[in-house]
Amino acid sequence: MPITSRHLLGLEGVPKEDIQLILDTATTFREVLDRPIKRVPTLQGKTIVNLFFESSTRTRISFELAERRLSADVVNFAVAGSSVAKGETLKDTARNIEAMKIDMVVVRHSSPGAALFLSRVVNANVINAGDGTHEHPTQALLDMYTIREKFGKLEGLHVCIVGDISHSRVALSNIYGLQIMGATVSVCGPKTLIPKDIEKLGVRVYYNVEEAIRNTDILNVLRIQLERQDRSFFPSTREYHNYFGITKEKLEKAVKPITIMHPGPINRDVEISADVADGENSVILQQVLNGVAVRMAVLYLLGTGEGK
Q: Read out DSSP for 180-225?
């Protein structure tokens, strides 16, 4: 069965079968990445534009690697030297690029809903690589893949997302995706960084990180999104680390080993200590590798017409 959409704009309302198909397909491509020749001709002849209006290292490189591993033609759009700097709108930028006969657009933008808007004005497949504080679906998919790789399942597990929930697009996509797949999700952080009424999404809220650690299987640790904050939400990074930073000392109080995840970039000794980030229960580097496989799966399913 194909996935039910031509685009990947977010995980809210996505059928469980679609997520399952993406994760299962990613398993196939994960095997490709272990081969001596890490390339398949699946998207040969397809042209993909990476339309990044925000700074990015991991996500942009991961998508570009995935596209090249699938043998697609890749165009990287740099805002700094483009007509956007001269006042061109997102709509005109997209339509001008599409006039060059591109097949898919991977877009990152500071405005929530930018990917949805693009999907309505271009004929190409659109993949959301992060739209403001809204969603970042491929990050959540690679997080879920990494969890499933370690535990063999998602259903019945408890994942706690710790940190700057209010400004995080990773948190929202993880909440939607994990719950669709049968996991329990909670969030933890200072009251100033927890959205009002987030409980309506079916998550439990912790304001004490030690309590959260006692009741979870996986901690997905988020960095403080200073670039999205227009004011200070806590006295200092040192105080944040003291109360909410994930440290070896805090984890030692847990009744079982806790798997540690982080979408990156890591602010060491702020939201997470260096020894935890590099510790035996960390799967942070696996997340990076799995991100390429998951994005290959998404590009394949949409780019070959396996999405309706």
A: HTT-EEEEES-GGGS-TTGGGGT-EEES-HHHHHHT-SEEEE----
Q: Please tell me whether the peptide bond between 265 and the residue prior to it is cis, using omega within 30 degrees of 0.
A: yes
Residue 246 near residue 252, CB atoms below 8 Å: no
Which residue type sits at 50?
N
Cα torsion 306, 170, 131, 61 to 10°: value is -70
- Write the CATH number of the domain with boundaries 16-136+288-303: 3.40.50.1370
Phi, psi of 231 (to 5 degrees): -160, 175
Sequence ranges of the domains in the chain:
16-136+288-303, 137-284
State the DSSP H helix or E strand holding residue 110, giving kind and residue range, or none if neither: none
pLDDT per residue as tens digits for the range 261-305: 999 999 999 999 999 999 999 999 999 999 999 999 999 999 997
CATH topology of domain 137-284: Rossmann fold (3.40.50)
Q: Among 226, 162, 231, which residue's Cα sits nearest to residue 190?
A: 162
* Beta-carbon contacts of residue 256 (< 8 Å; ≥ 6 apart): 217
